[in-house]
Amino acid sequence: MDINKIRKDTRGLEDGKIFLNNAGSSLMPDLVTDAMIDYLKSEEYSGGYHIANVNADILEEFYDETAKLINAKADNIAFATSATEAYAKALSSIVFKEGDVIITTADDYISNQITFISLHKKLGVKVMRMKNLPDCELDLEDLEHLIKIYHPKLLAVTHIPTNSGLIQNVEAVGKICKKHDILYLVDACQSVGQMVVDVEKIGCDFLTATGRKFLRGPRGTGFLYVSDRILEQEYAPLLLDMRGANWTEYDDYKLFTTAKRFEHWEISYASMLGLKHAIRYANEVGMEPVEKYNRNLSQKLRNNLKDSGFDVWDLGNRLSSIVTFSGPDGDLENIQKVLKENNVYFSVAYKNSALIDFTNKNINGIVRLSPHYFNTIEEIERVSEILERSLK
Ligand SMILES: Cc1ncc(COP(=O)(O)O)c(C=O)c1O
Q1: Which residues are in the Aminotransferase class V domain (predicted)?
Q2: 189 C-alpha vs ligand 1 centroid, how far in Å?
Q3: Which ligand 1 atom minimizes the distance to the CA of 211?
Q4: Of all residues in the chain, what percent carry a pLDDT higher than 90?
């Protein structure tokens, strides 16, 4: 990876900030915003329908680039306006009835947990969470045990939780789902763009992602992967529109064959184009070197923070580029002040966003730093020094 070139490709880095909020909303490469602005300008002059027709082939490349990123086929990809929209569409395609069981994890994303609770309240679906082992890894024996007793309809796992450095063993869960023929939904919102994500290896039926985080795309974008077996079984969102089906009879329709049936007809094509460019950029840099580079940055940062006396809260055997920590007596305020004064971009999360995890860790919140491949080891050292000095 040519870090100098990558940094030059990113105007957002020109003012000397240290940008470490890639798990929140990253900096787009220049070509992403340039392509979007050009596209909007052409809409301004000719209207959106004409411009979408003229650019049909270029827009279609979004599906090829996304498929390449996660080792799928273009027909398995749907554009979405966010990871949450993709997740809701996937869930809505499953016909839940009272007593059906969803098994998830204690570390799944806040919005997923709220959605499951809503399914419980509205439809009487039972929500269970598999146990964690003492080292924070998923307890797969417990999972097999729960499956044998409850015969779940769906297993849902967040690959990388938003507020902890943990990387969940989604491949092992995938094998168990296959063995027991259970639907499998993976939230890869924080892993796509950060590391290699391969839907064949994971063995999932649905996988959701957002554009604006480690993928470095625009806000208001994301995607959904839908496996062949799900498409063949005619799964489709509950509230379909004309993007999903052909209206063939007064009282009937015929579903379209590809994952596009999970889209809505109206979307921002400028945003889709921006996401295509961001994904193409990620494909060109290559996810293997990105994963390796990010692991080095985050390990260095964690070690420095621990050595300086901060409490680092990332537990698990494989850790991601999400580094979470707090200061003496759980301090978050002083850390935020110092980072802001030094033009370091970060985010903070409080207890309700990771209710189970933070309760278990007995903390009220964390500061999150999330380095990415345009960051340098010098930046990591500088931030570590700034934080160490703040303790003296
Ligand atoms: C793990 C995880 N899943 C899902 C989401 C939701 O993504 P979006 O805001 O694009 O819907 C987030 C956002 O922070 C996340 O971290």
Answers
A1: 18-383
A2: 6
A3: 10
A4: 98
Q: At what angle do helices 269-285 and 30-46 cross, to 10 degrees?
A: 160
Average pLDDT of span 253-274 = 98
Q: What is the average pLDDT score of the chain? A: 97
- Rounded to whole angstroms, the Cα distance separating 336 from 323 reads 15
Q: How confident is the model at residue 342 (pLDDT cuts 50, 70, 90)?
A: very high
In the chain, the domains with their CATH numbers are: 3-27+287-390 (3.90.1150.10), 30-284 (3.40.640.10)
Q: What is the mean pLDDT of residues 117-128?
A: 98
Give the pocket of ligand 1 (CB within 6 Å).
Answer: 82-84, 109, 111, 158, 162, 187, 189-190, 210, 222
Residue-by-residue DSSP string for 212-223 = SSTT---TT-EE
Nearest CA to ligand 1 atom 3: 189
The C-alpha atoms of residue 380 and residue 374 are separated, in whole angstroms, by 12
Reply yes or no on whether the pLDDT at 117 is more than 90.
yes
User: Which token pair is 84?
Assistant: 């949450």
**Would you say residue 347 has pLDDT above 90?**
yes
Q: Which atom of ligand 1 is nearest to the CA of 187?
A: 3
In DSSP terms, 18 is beta-bridged to 344
Query: Which strand (E) or helix (H) includes residue 186?
Result: strand 183-187
Residue 33 Cα, ligand 1 centroid: separation in angstroms?
A: 22
Q: Is pLDDT above 90 for 96?
A: yes
Query: Which whole-number Å values give the CA distances from 339 to 18, 310, 389, in the listed order?
Result: 10, 14, 12
Token match 């049936």: residue?
A: 261
What is the position in ligand 1's atom list of the atom closest to the CA of 159? 1
* For residue 260, pLDDT beyond 90: yes
Best mutation site among 91, 167, 210, 271 for ligand 1 pocket (most ligand atoms within 8 Å of CB) = 210
Q: Would you say residue 224 has pLDDT above 90?
A: yes
Q: Which of 185, 186, 189, 370 to mutate to test the pocket of ligand 1 (most atoms within 8 A of CB)?
A: 189
CA 125 – ligand 1 centroid, Å: 23
